[in-house]
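Lab notebook, bench 4. Still working through the backlog of constructs that have no structural model yet. Next entry is a single chain of 441 residues. Request: give me the structure tokens for it.
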Amino acid sequence: HPVTGILLDRGMVLWFPSPRSFTGEDVAELHLHGSTAVVQAVSDALAKIDGLRPAQAGEFSRRALLNGKMDLVEAEGLADLLAAGTETQRKLALRQMGGHTSQLYESWRSKLVRSLAHVEAFIDFGEDEEIHEEVLSSVVEEARGLARELRAFLDDARCGEILRDGLRIVLAGPPNAGKSSLLNAIAKRPAAITSATPGTTRDVLEVRMDLFGLEISVSDTAGLRVAVGDDIEKEGIRRAAEQWSMADVRVLVLDAAAGTKQVQEVKDILSHDTRDGIGESAEEEDGGKSTRKREHCPADADCTLVLLNKSDLLVDTAGERVQISEIAEDVQLWLGNVRVRPLSCETGEGMEEAMQALHAAACNRLKGRDLENSLLITRPRHRRHVEGCCAALDRFCVVGQTPDVAAEELREAVAHLAAVTGRVHVEQVLDVVFADFCVGK
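Model written out:
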């Protein structure tokens, strides 16, 4: 202890002189035994030393960023690594923290800086240095090519954001179809209360888990029926429909013994706006502001699974086989060529096949991407700036032959990519001007 001289622990001190440390500054690390008492005692002792204070949340990473030891994308990757709950998230964060994603953004930014330098050179030195107008045409072609590359990068079905935040699976269907039992089977624990009484689930119950090596959020929802019991159940049904509209993977759970009427009732509910009352179809609200309508089309079919639960209650007769076939036909007329699987949550029959189909739907939502090696957009902030860069490049290609206006659009495109990594170096434009054109030699 710096004041009392009492022995607090026996440990090890490591010294990292600047700039060979995490932050780029002089850093001393104390390696101690990790009990609460030891850590608290040493922390209290350090607080007695003038000039020392506890670091604020993320302060070491912030200093590393400010000292150029990492850029903003790498810092976000570190934050994602610390929060990673699955192997896929760990690998995604590690690639980002390691600078692979930053290198891609920086390569695009470097191309734009070079293009901007050429336009600036034409504006400032075109007549004196005999820089011809072909330079502008060449830059426009390069901008078109880069815009195509950026759009291909954006066309990722938001896989990176889904992997980082978690894949949303929503269970929906009529009351007593077995949604809560299915949730318990997937979670392998009694996460939801099950009962033969209709309307047991009144709100959205969300359970997060590691499934298929992915962060998964599975939501059990209120049973869908038109003849609601009270306002609480009505609100629960509205929330169920809202969750269905926002799901990455949709699982419709039906009662295999209940016939085709349930399909039409569920379809009627899920086809109405979630912000309107169940059974109503208002087009506008909030002062005439248009509401967002959900659309179900065959394009969603590969991310949708239909499970016919309680198949153990059926007798293998011709009539019941026709009934199952009719349910499947009605569902596919509504949702497209979706997978329809029989299931018994009571006996477990069909559960393995249902989980395989669920895994396939999750993979389809991720567009079958190579998650081990792909560079993906992981945050809305990145996506907004890449989209902004594309828009600026489009405008540049329109005004490319008007150098002053074109240069401004290129500056905006460069600024968007620089904002992703947090690195803005205006002087690099001048470096390229003098290197490429030997101006004033």
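Notes after review: Residues 100-129 form the longest helix (30 residues). The first strand starts at residue 12 and ends at 16. Flag for follow-up if needed.
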